[in-house]
Design goal:
Layout lengths: L1 E6 L11 H4 L4 H15 L2 E6 L3 H10 L5 E5 L9 H9 L3 E5 L21 E4 L4 H18 L1
Parallel strand pairs: 1-2, 1-3, 3-4, 4-5
The chain binds ligand CA2.
């Protein structure tokens, strides 16, 4: 079982600013926490981050055939048509994750272009959202393979 964890623009800055909104953990910390859980579940995980919309599309396309995608598209969540198109193109079950609760924030963050093509969305639980996403994909994939 192979799951890609993909983070979009500015998430490389995690842990350096706005801890009240995004938490104190760095992206490397989140990666370690997810890898620990993936090891327990026996899931192979790959991590990627890019600040560029086209690069995110390329990464998604390159993972056609993978079993799951955990995606925090950052600010592109609220603007991108190309990223959801890439997800539709590869048909990978996708969990959309946001560290912050986007519905408690500015109005422009309430709409996601990712949600219509995602299996579901987790928002507001910080790094724990990535672990929950992994557990949810594991449940779905083991059920499908049974
Ligand atoms: O809550 C989330 O995970 C977001 O996807 C984060 C995006 C934001 O545009 C979305 O509306 C919600 C922003 C990521 C910026 O991350 C930073 C973290 C620390 C310091 C600076 C930026």
């Amino acid at each position: 079982m192979r799951v890609l964890v993909l983070n979009g623009p500015n998430l490389n800055l995690l842990g350096t600013r706005e801890p009240a909104v995004y938490g104190r953990e760095t992206l490397a910390d989140v990666e370690m926490l997810v890898r620990n859980r993936a090891d327990v579940l026996g899931i192979e995980v790959e991590f990627a981050q890019s600040n560029h919309e086209g690069a995110l599309v390329d990464i998604i396309q390159a993972h056609r055939g993978w079993d799951g995608l955990i995606l925090n598209a950052g600010g592109y969540t609220h603007t991108s048509v190309a990223i959801p198109d890439a997800i539709s193109g590869v048909q990978i079950p996708t969990v959309e994750v946001h560290l912050s609760n986007i519905f408690k924030r500015e109005e422009f963050r309430h709409h996601s272009y990712i949600s219509p093509v995602a299996w579901g969305c987790i928002a507001g639980f910080g790094w724990r959202g990535y672990i929950a996403a992994l557990d949810l994909l594991y449940g779905r994939l083991t059920e499908e393979q049974a």
